[in-house]
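Changelog excerpt

This revision adds worked examples to the README so contributors can see how folded entries look when concatenated. The first example is reproduced verbatim below.
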Amino acid sequence: MENSILSYKGIRVKTGCLTCRKRRVKCDELKPICKRCIKANVICDGYQKKRSVPSPKLGIKTPPFTEAETESTSVSGIELTASSSPESARYIPSPRSPLSAPIPSSPRTRHRSELAFYHHFVTSTAPRLFDLEHITFWRDHVGSIAWGNDLVFEAILAIGGIHQAYLLSASELTAESMMQSRVSGLRSYGETLRLMESHTKKEGRTDMQPAIVAGVLLAYCECIMNRIKPAALHLKAAGQLLGPSTAPDLSSYPAGYKALHATIAKLDFLAQSIVPYSQPFIQKDSHEACNYMGAFDSFSEGSVHRSVSSERVELVQIISRFNHLDNIIWGPWSSKSSRPSSEALSRFQMDLLYWRANSPLTFDGCSESLAILPDCDEPLDELPIPPEPLFFQSRYAALSTALYNNYMACSFSMLSNGHDHDRNALCAFHYVYQNLRIAEGLTAATLQDSENIDINISLLLYLSFRRCYSREWQTWTIQKLRQCGQQGLLDGSAFANTLENIYHLQLRAELQSNYALKPAYNTTGLLHSRILPLLQPKDESDRWVAYYLRPTTSLDHEDMNLCVIGRAAWRQDKRGNMASVQFDFYDDLAVADVGVASLRDWIQSLEASPRLRDQSF
């Protein structure tokens, strides 16, 4: 009742939390954190208490202080969310949550900003970044052990601050708040590295769970900042530390081992799709102890609890088991010098088709019935561009279908004998076209910048570009990529610019040749001879760099080599367009003769680095 007077219009009061007063917005005055600050994802600085009346005898003034300061030592991060309002009630953990138990005393003094970043991780970061089936581990279990472990606590503050800074910049709130969150997050990032070194080097230490959790959280920090190289290093360190010996450390929370496996393997799969390293980051003993992606054989008759998410896990298992993924995507750029045999590719296709037949939840939600195999008799020239959109009940199901289509197209393309229209090439084209339809359906719904760290349609469009049937398909793909925006590690504009530069290389090749390079399907070239774009991971500068390679095969089509034909470097404006671009052209130089070898050197050093048990992250 004390706040009921504020409901009358026309009355102005100088109350509210310090943050809302500073932002000059109306505060709902919920305590200890107002709903306005929760919605804006900003730090609520609490409420200023009235100054006490000084004693006329002593003449001592009581200094002003905030309620948040007086309560910071007795209020836990979860108690901050307690409120009778419907909006904030969703942040209160269930009675069964580990966070509902009494939280041990803090290992050190915590400030309001630290509690706010911890609160942001629990209520916003964890639900956004981690799969629903593992959210209990990351939000509740990890959030609980952080109160007794400085290493995990600092890692949570790092991801909470960096993620909050991303959201503030995306929503165009004050630059000052965004910078404060980012600086605080990076400060905790550095402290996590310091604690990580002492934790992993301590003699006789066997409990590696905090180091693994912290390594995964730091990898996510780098993903949000769009830095693939350091993300891969953290990911490998966490994967190497995770093994059967870790299971006893998680005995109090049995789902933890599976959650850690699934999260590391998910990031590993995404990273291998961007940078073609060949060895998975989870060690072999860990792979055998817990089936890849942390799931057991879901195709068995006794399987229960099936979902679209579990069907995606099964698909990734199949892809990851085949040749460590790299050769099927990257072909000659991978560390292997020979292409997969036709027998291996056929087995891979049969595994994919078996998954397709046993994944009803993924495909039943499609707006139309999809054939198991495409109708190759349908003329490709008559397929409309823009394509008819293909809709699914969920975005997750749509992306799982697109992922399946991408690898079916890859395998059919590699089985193609090089002729213009053999059946394998036609199948590859039809799978690519179905992905164009899925992309049209997704963009018809919504496509915007997000921090989602997962496979996205922009990556699948980028990988499918080399298997487009016509120049018209390729042009549409580039236009669609420009609509995708920045999504975690995936930058649709950078993908679009990388592919657009291929046109300049093709034009140069046509001008220098003595014959017209125009096969039946519109200057895109034969599948085996098309240019392979390789977008370098972005470094600390604001430049993007891509190399362009042309595959060559031996007469028996078994061994493959790469020749570098060009390099492009450019900067992007705020809209993602190329502000300036510089080309360097090469006359079919070997990969080792140009700067692209630096990426391969980094990949090889990443794969060859020793086990990090006794090294710092």
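The second example, added in the same revision:
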Amino acid sequence: MFDWHFTIRGPRDTEFAGGVYHGRILLPADYPFKPPNIILLTPNGRFEVKKKICLSISAYHPEHWQPAWGVRLILEALISFMPTKGEGAIGALDFTADERKKLASESVTWSCPQCGDIKNLIPEEAPRDAAPVESKYASQIAQLHIHNMEPEAKAPATENPPTDATPTAAPPTLEPIAAPAFDSPATPDVHAAPVPVQPVASTPVVRPSPAAPTSPVAAPRQSDFVDSVLQGISTALVIALLALVYKKLLQLNGNVIAE
């Protein structure tokens, strides 16, 4: 379930044209909240074989990952990265154009131990005279870039993907499954930050503070009334007690006189 095989075609008008490349996408258990690992299995001259490659859409850069990115976008972005320079990134190669063309011609005969001949896993390529169809992920792919070890080389790396984002590949096994998974929430929380800018609500909370003394005013009045009642009762009890003592004294005096 978490180990997917894919097959893509090399982008047109490049040294990868005519090539068919097979690889694996290793999805983490908490996908799509974390990015996958991408491994190429077919020799291609751009990425190392059987090694996790470093791309802004791979697990090497979780800070760039967006849960809305599906497998279809990952594959189209991978195709757009193939003609770009490796710039020393992990798993990157910089073969010459002639070497890559040779590997592209040899790739159609490559066979996967699990999937079989890869040329049978992908539909026929559209005629060259057919009008190219722009990918709906073109704007997102244009913003992606390959992680470079040299900071100076980051600028050309980000400029290449937009020019190569128009060729689209149609992986037969992954498109129907991955594309619907995360297309709709493409931009759900991009601009969620402006919401907290509402300080007006804090002002009414401070204003009612003068009205606060009104509620304590009633409480002291009630307490004074209760205190006065209790004081009156205690005074009456003291008077009654004194009256009883006085009566006892009178009775004692009367008994003494009678004797």
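Reviewer comment on example two: Residues 162 and 224 are 82 Å apart (CA to CA). The helical segments are 71-81, 97-107, 138-142, 154-164, 175-178, 202-206, 214-258.
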